């Protein structure tokens, strides 16, 4: 069975890149489940940043789509991100990696290292070999460079005899159409079977890099949804405390800036520039490891 174990929803919070702040995802849980069902994903994990709310909300509607949902979170530690799977309580960010893993396992959960050699995300790097992790994400579809995934896979294979991990593949989806770009394969037909397979290190992975057009659509969706909220907030309060707190003139500037972004080739230009930047940083990462 296929399991996509790294997916974000509209509950994933705010990201920062340079001096820009923007939502990590604006995707509705229902849309994620629709695509998962269409692509034959039998189990998925919602792993929003530093919260299990997205997983809890998505699990409420899993039976409508026949896709089993694992409640998870991508938790920021002092040294890099760790994914907790099968969670039922929030885990605070900025603990040590050891403390974070302990909190995960106290709930009966599993600890996974996402994109361990990412040059653009907070990643654990070689610290994965010192920690009590259950699995390592050796293929992350969102990292399109073709380099950092190979670094992770080669290092995990090289050290497997002394520190075995379950091999994890994930989409790291930020919009619904990214779901299933990569996934973990396991024997069985349920989340319980997946749990056992990860513990026994009997998983493998398949997938392909996220197409560039999907990364471009992600940025467009972020701006489009923010634009709608900004326009509505000029008259009414919206379900976004950050937007509600903005001064009127800043909302006007935001609407104007969003319109320029959407009505010009900027999404395409920013997509290609972002792709170039990722590949450049990935090549630098080779020299570091």
Automatic annotation (TrEMBL):
Coiled coil: none annotated. GO terms for molecular function: 5'-3' DNA exonuclease activity; 5'-3' RNA exonuclease activity. It comes from Methanocaldococcus fervens (strain DSM 4213 / JCM 15782 / AG86). SUPFAM superfamilies: PHP domain-like. Residues 3-79 form the Polymerase/histidinol phosphatase N-terminal domain. The chain crosses the membrane at residues 252-278. This is PHP domain protein. Keywords: Membrane, Transmembrane, Transmembrane helix. It comes from the Archaea.
């Amino acid at each position: 069975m296929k399991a996509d174990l790294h997916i974000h929803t509209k509950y994933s919070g705010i990201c920062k890149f340079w001096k820009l702040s923007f939502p990590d995802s604006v995707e509705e849980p229902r849309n994620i489940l629709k695509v998962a069902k269409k692509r034959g994903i039998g189990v998925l994990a919602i792993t929003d940043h530093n919260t299990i709310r997205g997983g809890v909300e998505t699990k409420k509607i899993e039976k409508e789509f026949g896709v089993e949902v694992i409640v998870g979170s991508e938790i920021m530690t002092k040294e890099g991100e760790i994914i907790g799977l099968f969670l039922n309580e929030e885990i605070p960010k900025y603990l040590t990696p050891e403390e974070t893993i302990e909190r995960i396992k106290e709930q009966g959960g599993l600890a996974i290292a996402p994109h361990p050699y990412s040059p653009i995300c907070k990643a654990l790097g070689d610290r994965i070999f010192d920690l009590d992790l259950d699995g390592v994400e050796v293929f992350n579809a969102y990292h399109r460079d073709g380099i950092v995934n190979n670094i992770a896979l080669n290092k995990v294979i090289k050290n497997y005899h002394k520190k075995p991990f379950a091999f994890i593949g994930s989409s790291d989806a930020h919009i619904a159409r990214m779901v299933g770009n990569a996934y973990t394969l396991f024997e069985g037909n349920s989340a319980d079977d997946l749990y056992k397979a990860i513990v026994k290190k009997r998983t493998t992975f398949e997938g392909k890099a996220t197409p560039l057009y999907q990364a471009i659509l992600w940025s467009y969706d972020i701006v489009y949804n923010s634009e709608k909220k900004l326009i509505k907030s000029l008259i009414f309060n919206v379900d976004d405390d950050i937007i509600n707190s903005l001064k009127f003139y800043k909302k006007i500037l935001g609407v104007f800036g969003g319109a320029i972004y959407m009505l010009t080739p900027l999404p395409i230009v920013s997509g290609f520039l972002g792709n170039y930047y990722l590949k450049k940083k990935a090549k630098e990462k080779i020299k570091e490891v």
